[in-house]
Amino acid sequence: MTRLQVLKTYKIFIGGQFPRTESGRYYSLKGKDDFDIANVCLSSRKDARNAVVAARKAFGSWSERSAFNRGQIVYRIAEMLEGRRSQFIEELQLMGLTAANAAKEVDATVDRIVYYAGWCDKYQQIVSSVNPVASSHFNFSVAEPTGVVGIVAPEESPLLGLVSLLIPAIAGGNTVVLVASEKYPLSAVTLAEVIHSSDVPGGVINIITGTADELVSPLVSHLDVNAMTSAGLSKEMASAMQVQAADNVKRVFNYPAMDWSKASSQGLSMIEDLQEIKTTWHPIENIGGATSSY
Amino acid sequence: MAKKTTKKSNETGWEYAPSLESIGHIDLKESYDLFIDGKWVKPSSGKYFETINPANEKVLAKVAHANEEDVDRAVKAARKAYDTVWSKMPASERAKYIFRIARLMQERARELSVIETLDAGKSIRESRDIDVPLACNHFFYYAGWADKLEYAFPIRDFEPLGVAGQIIPWNFPLLMAAWKIAPALAAGNTVVLKPAETTPLTALKLAEIIELSGLPPGVVNIVTGFGDTGAAIVEHPEVNKVAFTGSTAVGKHIQRAVAGTDKKVTLELGGKSSNIIFEDAPIDQAVEGIVNGIFFNQGHVCCAGSRLFVQESVADLVVRKLKQRMDSLYVGDPLDKNTDIGAINSKEQLEVINKYIKIGIEEGAEMYQPNCEIPSKGYFCKPTLFSNVAQSNVIAQEEIFGPVLTIQTFRTVDEVIQKANNSPYGLAAGVWTDKGSRIFNLTSKLRAGVVWANTYNKFDPASPFGGYKESGFGREGGLHGLRAYVKLK
Known about the structure:
By secondary structure, chain A is of the alpha/beta class. In chain A, 41% of the residues lie in helices and 19% in strands.
């Protein structure tokens, strides 16, 4: 007799834990020939709000970690993901990718995370400045994370696409609520398991599954969300998001649909978009005649 | 070498049982060859020299002495690796190799720390908590730059220099290797590195790690030897870049040796850094800062705060507290976790320090040393303070590179700026005051590459380090450290 396989329950990821949706609802993910792959949580507005609360709670300590430490943790995500390479490839195949494309997608994802791990303690030196003001002040501007970021995972490129939006946000010290792709939720949930085992503090990354129609709006209208990112949304949806976001002057970035496997889909701007610039003025005592003439 | 007796602090009277770091887990070979083109090769001269533990004068290992011919092999291997592999590899793959080296170092951090302490004489607390973690972090930091150079040099054409010849000192053996190798690789260069003759072991352990990492052969070559080995690197016509950390005298020699060539040079040389205490400073913290500034790593620190300037109104208080603090310092077995001041790196260096102490006494300065015991075997020096020192005294002008501090007083801000800047060196300075505006006045007036405010001897891979004037040129660390390893067109 063949052994009966144990199936995985796909749950959502909030505050470092894996609850089911509070709504108790699900949707069936269908594979080839209408085959049922899994029951996926059909998260509710309440789940989205819970996720925002968790992200806000985690923001203080995550943004105050040393940049170097954030880099170590992000690199750890890459290490853990590489270790689960075959699991991700299988899952991507379940969701319809060919074996070759699935492997490419996973490898590119690991490399992308390594790329942003390197940015964690470097973007500051590029986007910050010391400003030569005319008065006797030491004046400098530094980048600080915007806060809680809502991310709508791209519908295509089930793993690489969402990682390409997610990692630059946390590399810059933000915390995140991510709405997984409705069509490809499995790799998002498995990614949550990788994140869970990568020293990423609970609440820094929260992942909910369900429909964009139902979940994006509560995030965009949420007054404790500071920014939204997405890619390739329809013009109508992007514009509706802009209107709603204005209520608390959210920063909204809907990047054009892109080929995530290309190097041009990564870069400093993805981090910079989710940063604020803070300028500090400090007086310089200037008494006496000593000069630095040696 | 374990001491059975407990130590007693003069200051507190407390007794501490020795807390020795175990050396059982380290893996040292009896003899080390040269690491050239990914292989361990015997020196063409067949000559080896001994490296000893300065804390007990016992031999740790024999190490190959590379001559001109060996250096030529190493440079040719580096050139070949540059032309055929390293310059052609996608930058993101280069990054992954450097990340991998960083991780392997982290995994072996404890072994590296113990070997560093055995070979260099520095306290295990320092190797474990400062040298080795910083070295790992340096690789980790620069790994991330490898595929982001276009951000470091925006809208400019740049290319790696080619083969970098790197010569490092004995005071921070592994850390200096990291400072040299990591940015060079990140920027796309290949490397020939020579560690100092008294402290070659951690660089050789690093070579083993590099071998293990699968880094393509020839990208990093490690050749051990003496000054002649270093000279062969500097003078080799196929070396495109010389990076040197060491004495100002040798730095000047290198600058002359490369005259008329296209070699790019960075020099990180000596110092006689000032540590300035104002009357409004938090005095207890400042005293800790003075101690850390001069006695950290037995004073074998190019940026050591060896010239102490204290505002007159608090000078008596600072000196009293400083002497009290010096009384509580433990000088002894570097492997003991209680030890504050380990062994002087070599017999030669101990002689240099003792020579300066003698000069100080002859110049009429007043010397203070705590009445502590020092081990009878090995090279040790008590923490030493000279007061009643004039700006013109030799001990206030020349770099001693040992646990010897001179103290002078000042009245006004102007006066201390003049005194602090009155030195051919310009590596670092410390400023202790509660007044922020005064800190920024001094940071703008002091002619030094690093200024520490209410702290001292802080290092970070993201922070550039390097000197003004005769303390050298070029910066290591941070974004600025990359510039030393690229040609900007």
